[in-house]
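[Automated response] Your request has been received and processed.

Submitted sequence:
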Amino acid sequence: MDNIIVVMEKNIETGILEKEYCLIEANEYGELLDGIYVINKNGALYVHLKITTGRDVSDWEYSAIFDYYDPDALSGGGLEIQEILDEYNPSWEIIFPCPDEALAFQKSVVSILEKHFIELQDTYKIISDKKADYE
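Generated structure:
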């Protein structure tokens, strides 16, 4: 395992990461992962996964990425996707029910990262000639 991520359980009332939930191995797209934790909400666990661009973007790219990135490309399995507008680079928070088994948890995270990578690459291609539109 090269890219080990410790997933913590966060107390919904205090916001404190209280205990280790599990370990997962991020794939080659792990640099797109900006944070992950689980919360217990009314007896059900939910994963909060924060993804980003994996690199610093310029001001015009920031706006263009949000304009052209299609969050529906990540859809499936009851995902809730929110844009995070107060970060230096474009970021999204994905919330979904926590799978019961560690392997299913890992597969869910890896699948989202892979889909995000593909959508991000497609977005970079689309915006590559749009700099003048944003300056």
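Summary generated for your ticket: Residues 12 and 42 are 10 Å apart (CA to CA). DSSP finds three helices and six strands in the chain.
If you did not submit this request, please reply to this message.
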